Amino acid sequence: MVTEVRFGPAVVNADGAVLGRLASSLAKRLLMGEEIIVVNAEKAVVSGNPKVTEDFYLHRRQRGDRKKGPFFPRYPERILRRTVEGMLPENVRGREAIKRLSVHLGTPAELKGKAEKAAKQASELHAKYETLGDVGKALGAKPERWA
User: Fold this and answer.
1) CA 84, 110, 140, 48 torsion: positive or negative?
2) CA 135 to CA 141: how far, in whole Å?
3) In a domain, 135, yes or no
4) φ and ψ at 123, to 5 degrees?
5) Which residues of the chain have pLDDT under 70?
6) pTM for this entry
7) Residue 76 CA: distances (Å) to CA of 80, 93, 101
8) How many domains, in total, are found in the chain?
9) Domain residue limits at 103
10) φ, ψ dihedrals at 56, nearest 5°
11) What distance, in Å, lies between the first and last C-alpha atoms of the chain?
């Protein structure tokens, strides 16, 4: 078996990638010890009816208490990171794996042209979908931060 030799972390472009599928593949790669940088997190999509999706994430954000939580993020890169974290085991391996993940809004200048495409794209979906940027706006995130 031939393995690919990488120098530095893998860079994944989340533009048009389906959130759940992207998160599960990232979790698997992180558990194998890979270091991953995700760019364009605000362009990842959540499949389903946009109104139902917004209500689901808004409910997750509003439940709990201001002091005790549970606290749910409103910015797209943090939602993606939390989704990946939820797919990792709750032990030392999972904690070490999530430390190897870096998520960015947009593409930093030093990573332009280095990103690989994610597996399943939204253009292949035959359903309604909404981007994580739109979900973030519905939760109260300031779009000036990633625009």
Assistant:
1) negative
2) 9
3) yes
4) -65, -20
5) 1-6, 118-123, 147
6) 0.88
7) 6, 25, 15
8) 1
9) 10-139
10) -60, -50
11) 43
Alpha carbon distance 147, 144 (integer Å)? 5
pLDDT recorded at residue 57: 92
Q: How many CB atoms lie within 10 A of CB 86?
A: 11
Q: Is there a domain that residue 134 lies in?
A: yes
Which residue do the tokens 């940088």 mark?
37
Residue 146 lies in a domain: no
pLDDT confidence of residue 95: 95
What pLDDT score was predicted for residue 5?
A: 53
Q: Nearest CA to 134 among 82, 27, 58?
A: 58
- The whole-angstrom separation of Cα 135 and Cα 75 is 9
Q: Identity (one letter) of the amino acid at 94? A: G
Helix axes 19-31, 76-86, angle to 10 degrees: 60
Asked if residue 1 is part of any domain, the answer here is: no
pLDDT at residue 141, rounded to an integer: 93
- The rounded distance, in Å, linking the Cα atoms of 79 and 89 is 18
Q: What is the pLDDT of residue 120?
A: 61
Q: CA 83 to CA 27: how far, in whole Å? A: 9
For the chain, how long is the longest CA-to-CA vector?
Answer: 52
Identify the CATH number of the domain in which residue 104 sits: 3.90.1180.10
Per-residue confidence (pLDDT) for residue 111, from 0 to 100: 84
